[in-house]
Design brief:
single chain, about 425 residues, alpha/beta, Leucine-rich repeat, LRR (right-handed beta-alpha superhelix), twelve-stranded parallel sheet, two-stranded parallel ribbon, 14 strands, about 10% strand, globular, GTPase activator activity
Length: about 425
C-alpha cells in the first residue's frame, strides 16, 4: 500500500542502491566504502535515484552521508525507508538533522520515502521543519512511522506551511501523500484536513489503518478532501466510517470526477452507508477513468449489490478490480453472476474471492454503531484554525541553491556528534 501509483523509470547507471542489505552504519569507517562508491559513480553518471532502505544508520554515519547528499544535485528520488532499525530514540532525531536538510535545496528531488521508521513524537521537530521547506517535493511516502495523533497534527501543520511556501514560489503542490499505519486518529484531523486541502494539485491520498473514527472521517472529507478536485486515488482502508460519514463520502463523490480508485475496505460503512455510496455512483457522471473499487467488510447487502451491478454496467465502463468479500449477501447470488458476465463481455474486470461473506442476521449492531456516532461531538469549522496558521506563517525562500548548500554545510560542521 505504501507505494506510488506509478513506477519511475531510470537507467541502471542512474541508480545507486544498497537496499535491503541489513548493513549497520555506525561510524565513518562503516559507511566510507559506500560513499566512495557513490561519489565515484556520480562523477561519471547522473545519479537520479538513491536507495539506502533496509539498512540501519547511526549519527556519525548520517553526518557523512549528509555531506555527500549536498553534492547530488541530480537526485529525483530518495528512499530512506526502514533505515533506523535497532536505533535508540535519541539517535534518530540527531541522524535526521544530518539527513533531511541537505535534501531541501535539491530542485529535482520530487520523490521521498521515509516509511517504516520509528519516528513518533521524538522526531517531529526535525520532520516538521523539513516538510515545511521541502518545496520541490511532490510525492511523499510517510507510512508506519508511529506518529500518533499529536505528531500527526503537526504533520498537518507542516503540510499547510509547505503549501504556502510552494504557492509563494509558484511551485506545484504535493501530488501524493501516503501516510498509513500511523495511529493518526481523530486528534490529527483538524490540521491534517487544513494541510491537505491547500495542496490543490493533490492526486493521491492514502490514509489507511489510522484508527480514524466517523467524526474524523467526516471532517477530513467535508472540510478537507472535498476541495482536492484533482484526486485520482483515495485509500481510507481500515478506518471506521459507518453510516453518518458514509453519507458525507457519498455526497462528496461528485467532486472527484478524475477518481480512478476508491478503497474503503474494512470501513464498516453499514448497509445504509454502503447503499448511499453506490447510489452516489449511480446518480453521478460516467467515470471513464475509474478502475478499482474496494468495498470489503462493509455490511453491504443485496440491495446495494443489485444497484452496484447497474453502476458497473452504466457508470464504470473501465472497472478492472472489484472487491466485495466479507459483506452481507449470498455467494451464489444471481447478481454476482451478472456482474461476472459484465466483466466477461468486456474482456476485463475481476471480482475477488467471496470466501468470507457475513451471515445474514439482525441489524442490532447497526443501531449500536449509529447511537455511538450520535454521541460524538459536533464538527468544528476549520477556517479559523487556518487563519491562525496563516498569521504565523514564516515563508521559506531559498535565495539560490549554492547558498542553501553552504548554510547546511556550516550547520553540520558546527553540530556535535
Amino acid at each position: 500500500m505504501a507505494t506510488l501509483d506509478f513506477i519511475p523509470t531510470y537507467k541502471e547507471e542512474e541508480i545507486y542502491s544498497i537496499a535491503n542489505k541489513s548493513i549497520k552504519f555506525d561510524s565513518y569507517d562503516d559507511i566510507k566504502p559506500y560513499l566512495d562508491e557513490l561519489v565515484t559513480k556520480a562523477s561519471t553518471s547522473t545519479i537520479k535515484k538513491l536507495d539506502f532502505s533496509g539498512n540501519t544508520i547511526g549519527i556519525e554515519a548520517s553526518k557523512f552521508l549528509g555531506d555527500v547528499l549536498t553534492k547530488l544535485t541530480s537526485l529525483e528520488e530518495v528512499n530512506f525507508a526502514d533505515l533506523f532499525t535497532g536505533r535508540l530514540k535519541d539517535e534518530i532525531p540527531k541522524s535526521l538533522q544530518y539527513l533531511l536538510p541537505p535534501l531541501i535545496p535539491l530542485k529535482k528531488l520530487t520523490i521521498l520515502n521515509l516509511s517504516d521508521n520509528a519516528f513518533g513524537l521524538m522526531t517531529i521537530d526535525e520532520l516538521e521543519d523539513f516538510l515545511s521547506k521541502a518545496v520541490y517535493l511532490e510525492h511523499l511516502i510517510l507510512s508506519n512511522n508511529g506518529m500518533g495523533p499529536f505528531a500527526g497534527a503537526r504533520i498537518g501543520k507542516s503540510l499547510y506551511k509547505l503549501s504556502a511556501n510552494k504557492k509563494a514560489l509558484k511551485l506545484s503542490s504535493l501530488k501524493t501523500f501516503i501516510c498509513g499505519r500511523n495511529r493518526l486518529e481523530n486528534g490529527s484531523i483538524d490540521y491534517l484536513a487544513i494541510g491537505l486541502r491547500n495542496h490543490i494539485d493533490l492526486q493521491v491520498v492514502k490514509l489507511y489503518q489510522n484508527g480514524i473514527r466517523p467524526q474524523g472521517i467526516a471532517k477530513l472529507i467535508l472540510q478537507g478532501l472535498r476541495f482536492n478536485k484533482e484526486l485520482t486515488i483515495l485509500d481510507l482502508q481500515d478506518n471506521t466510517i459507518t453510516r453518518k460519514s458514509a453519507l458525507v463520502l457519498a455526497d462528496t463523490l461528485s467532486n472527484w470526477l478524475k477518481l480512478k480508485e476508491l478503497n474503503v475496505n474494512d470501513c464498516l460503512l453499514n448497509p445504509l452507508g454502503s447503499l448511499k455510496l453506490i447510489e452516489s455512483f449511480h446518480q453521478g457522471e460516467i467515470l471513464n477513468k475509474f478502475e478499482i473499487l474496494r468495498l470489503q467488510y462493509n455490511e453491504l447487502d443485496i440491495h446495494a449489490l443489485t444497484l452496484l451491478k447497474s453502476v458497473i454496467a452504466d457508470k464504470l465502463p473501465n472497472l478492472k478490480t472489484l472487491e466485495l468479500n466479507g459483506n452481507r449477501f449470498e455467494e451464489d447470488s444471481s447478481i454476482i453472476d451478472e456482474i461476472n458476465e459484465i466483466f466477461e463481455d468486456r474482456g476485463f474486470g475481476e471480482l475477488d474471492e467471496l470466501d468470507d461473506l457475513e451471515e445474514l442476521d439482525s441489524e442490532d449492531e447497526d443501531e449500536e454503531d449509529e447511537s455511538e456516532e450520535e454521541a460524538e461531538e459536533e464538527e468544528i469549522e476549520l477556517d479559523e484554525l487556518e487563519k491562525e496558521l496563516e498569521q504565523i506563517q514564516e515563508y521559506y525562500t531559498p535565495d539560490n541553491e549554492n547558498k542553501e548548500v553552504e548554510d547546511i554545510a556550516t550547520k553540520l560542521e558546527k553540530a556535535s556528534i
